[in-house]
Structures are given as structure tokens and as C-alpha cells.
Design goal:
The structure is a single chain. The protein has 131 residues and is α+β, with helices and mostly antiparallel strands. Helices cover 17% and strands 34% of the residues. The chain is built from four helices and nine strands, in the order E-E-E-H-E-E-E-E-E-H-H-E-H. The strands form two sheets. Strands 1-2-3-9-8-5 form a six-stranded antiparallel sheet.
């Protein structure tokens, strides 16, 4: 089992290995340490434009690594209010710092009640014991 530091307790998680950190009616989204490790060296990230509306469970972007191309899925519906443009020139930030510098997008949440469907850190750890 991974050390607790690799699955921060202050976030919500999805079964697709995205995390969501809530601050009021806004949320920051990224991929988990487990996801970046499984992908390998990330070489490209495609993110939606600011102002884009996203729907829970639907793809909002793409991560390409030396191993695979993977869709990024939205943990909650909302409007994109920021995107991490540093990832265009430095996609390796997702490997180096998936919970901090490697964040993907920030949303203004459409319905905070959707967060009830997400996993907390303990539930994520139980569902993915190798994470």
C-alpha cells in the first residue's frame, strides 16, 4: 500500500484516478500519483479553454505519455475558470507534482451535491490498494 502522503486526505477521488480539491464553490482537478505512475513519462496535455462548460463523467482533456493516450474525466460539472497553462511547455509537472504544480483545471461547480458520489482518501485507498 502506498504511503498516505501519496493520497492526500483533503481531496475527493474518482475511480478513473482524478482528484478534486474543493474551495467554496470552486474546485481544482488533477490526476493522482497512481495515475501518473501508471502512465509513465507524460509528454503532452490537452486542456479545455477557460469558459468551457464540462459535464460530470465526460472527458474534458487528454494526457499523452510514452505508454498511452488517456482521456481526463470530469469529477463534477461546472465551468472551467482556470487551466494550468504551464503544462503546455512542461507536461512533466504531472509526473513531478501531481497534487500541486501539476493541477489541470479549476471549475466553478454547477452542483456541489455531485461531490457526494466521489471517494474520500480512505475509500480510494480501499478501492485501489496498489495506489
Amino acid at each position: 500500500m502506498a504511503p498516505e502522503t501519496l493520497i492526500p486526505a483533503d481531496r475527493h477521488y474518482t475511480s478513473e484516478h482524478e482528484w478534486l480539491l474543493v474551495d467554496g464553490d470552486e474546485a481544482t482537478i488533477g490526476i493522482t500519483d497512481f495515475a501518473q505512475d501508471e502512465l509513465g513519462d507524460i509528454v503532452y496535455v490537452e486542456l479545455p479553454a477557460v469558459g468551457t462548460s464540462v459535464t460530470k463523467g465526460e472527458a474534458f482533456g487528454v494526457v499523452e505519455s510514452v505508454k498511452a493516450v488517456s482521456d481526463l474525466f470530469t469529477p463534477a460539472a461546472g465551468e472551467v475558470i482556470a487551466r494550468n497553462d504551464k503544462l503546455e511547455d512542461a507536461p512533466e509537472l504531472l509526473n513531478q507534482s501531481p497534487y500541486d504544480a501539476g493541477w489541470l483545471i479549476r471549475l466553478r461547480l454547477a452542483d456541489p451535491a455531485e461531490l457526494a458520489d466521489l471517494l474520500d482518501a480512505d475509500a480510494y485507498r480501499r478501492e485501489f490498494p496498489d495506489a
